[in-house]
Write a structure and sequence with these properties.
With 223 residues, the chain is an alpha/beta fold. Helix content is 39%, strand content 22%. It contains 8 helices and 12 strands. Helix 1 crosses helix 5 (107-122), helix 1 crosses helix 7 (175-182) and helix 2 packs parallel to helix 3. The protein is elongated and about 55 Å long.
C-alpha cells in the first residue's frame, strides 16, 4: 500500500537526496523538483499530499511558488530555507505555509514535522497496520507475528523492525534508514545485532530477511 506522496522542492541535490531517503524510509512516496518551474509542473501533475519547499530556487522562487499554489488549493506546505530572518518566516507563513524549518536541519525532525502537518491536515497518517508477505504475517497494531500460521514470540522492538522491512518488502533498506524508521539514535552497527536476534526468532521465515552486503537488509517477497 503506497504512502502519502511528498514533493521535495530543493535545488541542492545532496539535501534533496537525504530528504527523499528519510521520507521513503518512513513509508512516504516522493517526487523531486530542482526549480520553481518544475515544482509547479509536478504539483499540478502529481497532486502531492504535502510539499517540502525551499525558498531560494532558480527560475521561480519559492515564495512565488507558494503564492501560486495557495491561489488554487490548500496542499500542506512546509518551507525549508536558509533564510532565518523573522520577516522571511512571517512572510512565508502569511502566504500560507503550514510550517517553517530553517537550514541546517535534522532530516528526522523534518520527517516528524511532515507527519505532524499531515495529521493536522488530513487526520492520522494512514499506514497499514497489518502486512502479509508469503507465509509471514505482521500485525503492528496487535504486536503479533505469524509464520505459516504459527505465532512467534518477538519483542515489540523486533516486531517494529520486521514491520519496517515487511512494509517495504523487496526493497533494500540501509542501516541508517532502518534506524530512522524506528526512531532510534543508536549506532548503525547495532542494526546487525538486532537483525541477528530477529532471525533467531523467525523460525522457517528467517531466510526471508536478506543481508545486502555493504548496504543493509531486505525482506524477500517469497520464502
Amino acid at each position: 500500500m503506497p504512502g502519502e506522496l511528498v514533493l521535495v522542492v530543493e535545488d541542492e541535490p545532496q539535501i534533496a537526496d537525504t530528504l527523499e531517503r528519510y521520507l521513503r524510509a518512513n513509508g512516504f512516496r516522493t517526487e523531486r523538483a530542482g526549480d520553481g518551474e518544475r515544482a509547479l509542473e509536478l504539483w499540478r501533475r502529481a497532486r502531492p499530499d504535502l510539499i517540502l519547499l525551499d525558498l531560494m530556487l532558480p527560475k521561480v522562487d519559492g515564495l512565488e511558488v507558494l503564492k501560486r499554489i495557495r491561489q488554487e488549493d490548500r496542499t500542506p506546505i512546509i518551507v525549508l530555507t536558509a533564510k532565518a530572518e523573522e520577516v522571511d518566516r512571517l512572510l512565508g507563513l502569511e502566504l500560507g505555509a503550514d510550517d517553517y524549518v530553517v537550514k541546517p536541519f535534522s532530516p528526522r525532525e523534518v520527517v516528524a514535522r511532515v507527519k505532524a502537518v499531515l495529521r493536522r491536515a488530513q487526520g492520522l497518517v494512514r499506514l497499514p497496520s497489518h502486512v502479509q508477505i508469503g507465509p509471514l504475517q505482521v500485525d503492528l497494531e496487535a504486536f503479533r507475528v505469524r509464520c505459516h500460521g504459527q505465532e512467534l514470540a518477538l519483542t515489540p522492538f523486533q516486531v517494529r523492525l520486521l514491520y519496517l522491512l515487511a512494509s517495504r518488502a523487496g526493497k533494500a533498506l540501509t542501516r541508517e534508514e532502518l534506524l530512522s524508521g524506528l526512531g532510534t539514535e543508536a549506532d548503525e552497527r547495532t542494526v546487525d545485532a538486532h537483525v541477528k536476534n530477529l532471525r533467531a526468532r523467525l523460525g522457517p521465515c528467517a531466510t526471508m530477511v536478506e543481508t545486502i552486503r555493504g548496504y543493509g537488509y531486505r525482506l524477500r517477497e517469497t520464502p
